[in-house]
């Protein structure tokens, strides 16, 4: 506004027409405002959201598209996200022995009148919520389907149908157990409990050999198996109140089942990409810490002696400040509850990190809502978790998060490129119009020419920048700091010096033409300013690579916008009625070629800037 006032006052002092100067001053004000920015941002985000959904990342909240570029920690569930969620039972261990007691209780095979192995298989075939669909396929949670399939294939001595279900205590994240009650043929009741080893052992009587059970579970876990323990109890009659206190006590151990859920093949590369990009991947799981550690080492989450593992139980005991001090080194959370996810998010945010958190359950909703990017599972996720999330993974795949982050970086960089292009061109116009009167030259452009450059010459290529493909090294740059100015990393200086150069080129052309009494001087300035902007937009497609290395035709809409704008400018110069509107004159081929050559000064100057920056970096 200050420059506009100076232009107006200077024009009046020079004896210019007040109305013409007022129009010029207003046109300069318009030229200084990047009015296409809201449109470009919206288009960039919308195109990004469309591109992401094609890669199985559904964006629920549009600003999250750009926010993804700031993510520094990705906290992902193990099962289904880092692994294939294709559970398969590979090993079982029936409980044969008992601790010595004065009056030892019945062993498994004595109580059920079957072998310990069949007792464990019977429990696996009964304690689940798996159903068969119309096609005869087993449908349910992947872990329970795997247990049911294994039991069905190996249980030959008994018929599960002879043990009808009478009651159920569903699994929850606090108890980490599920219990079912079944009627036996003799009128007694069989209580079966499955769950985390430590939870089942706590529910067993004092005669359970915890040492042996724990040692066997550790062996399985070290091989990357997810371990579930089974316990049982025989009741003569059902208690009046069926709850945890009456059913999940005084159990006898049945044994263990070990399941393998192979890591996703693409997860290892995605985690490597995260590390290259300065993003820390973190595993969160309800599994045993030894199992979690084995999988984490396979896929590269644990790759340093400084990386730590913590359990949900340990997390409850440590002070909040101690947790925050250690949190940047903790890479695996095992046996954690959904409520503790919220604690993890808050602690990371207190350390100024930008957090992406995955979740699928109802209890995950607070953590998803609090996270900077809440990521819900599209296949296994609950409606509540999807409603709370910013993004939904349609394939429940960790690698999809990394792809979305990459696109988020690309989109933010494209917005920066638009700002770089638009503000540089605007400042070039402002400098030319501002300095000309101070240098004793007439104002080089009339209002309609200023508006043409601002709306058409700057507008069409700027919109095409929204679709610019990612630079080759995009995942080798650190995440953007959340509070970082859009003018950071030299963008502000670029706008300043290239704007001054653009203004100087225009004024140089004007001064040369007027010195030679060329009546076409204003057309020269108008044309050079237009063509310089076309060269500038091509050179800023990459901040690191020269145009020819980036690929001239890698953004065809931009090439089309540049050629279309070039053609429109030629029309303004040679179509008679447009000449009258825009006060232009036809240029000869020599004059047009001279304007093109001069316009390339800005292009080569920006390419030279990349070379200088690269050499400084190499030093």
CATH superfamily of the largest domain: Calcium-transporting ATPase, transmembrane domain
Please give the radius of gyration in angstroms. Answer: 35 Å
Derived structural class: alpha/beta
Strand order of the largest sheet: 1-16-15-14-2-11-13-12
Strands, count: 16
Describe this structure in words.
The protein has 619 residues and is an alpha/beta fold. It has 3 domains: 2-32 and 424-618, Calcium-transporting ATPase, transmembrane domain (Up-down Bundle), CATH 1.20.1110; 70-84 and 264-396, 3-Layer(aba) Sandwich (Rossmann fold); 88-260, Calcium-transporting ATPase, cytoplasmic domain N. Helix content is 53%, strand content 14%. The protein is built from 27 helices and 16 strands. The strands form 3 sheets. Strands 1-16-15-14-2-11-13-12 form an 8-stranded mixed beta sheet, sandwiched between helices. A 6-stranded antiparallel beta sheet has the order 3-10-9-8-7-6, with helices on both faces. The longest helix is centred in the C-terminal third of the chain and has 41 residues, at 398-438.
SSE inventory with pairings:
Blueprint: H1 2-13, H2 18-31, H3 37-53, E1 57-59, H4 64-67, E2 73-77, H5 78-82, E3 88-94, H6 108-112, H7 116-126, E4 131-132, E5 138-139, H8 142-154, E6 165-169, E7 177-183, E8 189-195, H9 197-203, H10 210-222, E9 226-235, H11 244-247, E10 252-260, H12 265-276, E11 280-285, H13 289-299, E12 308-311, H14 312-317, H15 320-326, E13 330-334, H16 338-350, E14 355-359, H17 365-370, E15 373-377, H18 383-388, E16 391-393, H19 398-438, H20 447-457, H21 459-464, H22 491-515, H23 521-539, H24 547-550, H25 556-574, H26 576-582, H27 589-618
Parallel strand pairs: 2-11, 2-14, 11-13, 12-13, 14-15, 15-16
Antiparallel strand pairs: 1-16, 3-10, 4-5, 6-7, 7-8, 8-9, 9-10
């Amino acid at each position: 506004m200050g420059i506009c006032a100076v232009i107006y006052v200077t024009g009046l002092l020079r004896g210019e027409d007040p109305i013409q100067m007022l129009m010029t001053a207003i046109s300069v004000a318009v030229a200084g405002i990047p009015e296409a920015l809201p449109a470009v941002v919206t288009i960039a985000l919308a195109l990004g959201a469309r591109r992401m959904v094609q890669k199985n990342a559904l964006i629920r909240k549009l600003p999250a598209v750009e926010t993804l570029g700031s993510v520094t920690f990705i906290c992902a569930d193990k099962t289904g996200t880092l692994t294939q969620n294709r559970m398969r039972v590979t090993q079982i261990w029936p409980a044969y022995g008992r601790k010595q007691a004065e009056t030892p209780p019945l062993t498994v095979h004595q109580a059920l009148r079957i072998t310990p192995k069949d007792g464990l298989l019977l429990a696996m075939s009964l304690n689940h919520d798996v159903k068969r669909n119309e096609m005869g396929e087993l449908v349910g949670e992947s872990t329970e389907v795997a247990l049911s399939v294994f039991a069905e294939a190996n249980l030959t001595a008994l018929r599960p149908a002879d043990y009808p279900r009478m009651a159920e205590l569903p699994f929850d994240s606090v108890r980490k157990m599920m219990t079912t009650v079944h009627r036996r043929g003799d009128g007694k009741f069989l209580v079966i409990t499955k769950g985390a080893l430590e939870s089942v052992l706590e529910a067993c009587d004092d005669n359970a050999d915890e040492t042996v059970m724990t040692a066997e579970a550790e062996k399985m876990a070290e091989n990357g198996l997810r371990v579930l323990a089974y316990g049982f109890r025989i009741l003569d009659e059902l208690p009046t109140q069926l709850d945890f206190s009456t059913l999940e006590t005084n159990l006898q151990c049945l044994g263990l089942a070990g399941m393998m859920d192979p890591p996703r093949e693409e997860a290892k590369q995605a985690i490597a990409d995260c590390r290259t990009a300065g993003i820390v991947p973190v595993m969160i799981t309800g599994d045993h810490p030894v199992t979690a550690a084995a999988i984490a080492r396979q896929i590269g989450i644990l790759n340093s002696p400084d990386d730590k593992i913590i359990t949900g139980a340990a997390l409850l005991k440590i002070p909040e400040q101690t947790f925050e001090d250690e949190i940047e080194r903790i890479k695996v959370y095992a046996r954690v509850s959904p409520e503790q996810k919220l604690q993890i998010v808050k602690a990371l945010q207190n350390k100024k990190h930008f957090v992406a958190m995955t979740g699928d359950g109802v209890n995950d909703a607070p953590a998803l809502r609090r996270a900077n990017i809440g990521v819900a599972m599209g296949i296994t996720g609950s409606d509540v978790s999807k409603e709370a999330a910013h993004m939904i993974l349609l394939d429940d795949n960790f690698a999809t998060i990394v792809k979305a982050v990459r696109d988020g970086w690309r989109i933010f960089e494209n917005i920066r490129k638009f700002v770089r292009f638009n503000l540089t061109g605007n400042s070039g116009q402002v400098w030319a119009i501002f300095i000309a009167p101070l240098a004793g030259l007439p104002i080089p452009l009339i209002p309609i020419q200023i508006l043409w450059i601002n709306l058409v010459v700057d507008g069409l290529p700027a919109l095409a920048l929204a679709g610019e493909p990612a630079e080759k090294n995009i995942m080798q740059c650190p995440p953007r700091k959340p509070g970082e100015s859009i003018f950071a990393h030299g963008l502000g200086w670029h706008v300043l010096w290239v704007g001054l150069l653009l203004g100087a080129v225009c004024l140089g052309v004007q001064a040369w033409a007027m010195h030679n009494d060329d009546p076409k001087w204003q057309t020269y300035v108008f044309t050079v300013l237009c063509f310089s902007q076309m060269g500038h937009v091509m050179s800023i497609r990459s901040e690191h690579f020269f145009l020819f290395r980036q690929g001239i035709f890698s953004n065809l809409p931009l090439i089309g916008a540049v050629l279309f704008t070039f053609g429109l400018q030629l029309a303004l110069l040679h179509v008679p009625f447009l000449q009258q509107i825009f006060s232009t004159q036809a240029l000869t081929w020599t004059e047009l070629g001279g304007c093109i050559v001069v316009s390339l000064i800005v292009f080569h100057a920006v390419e030279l800037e990349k070379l200088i920056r690269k050499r400084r970096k190499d030093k």
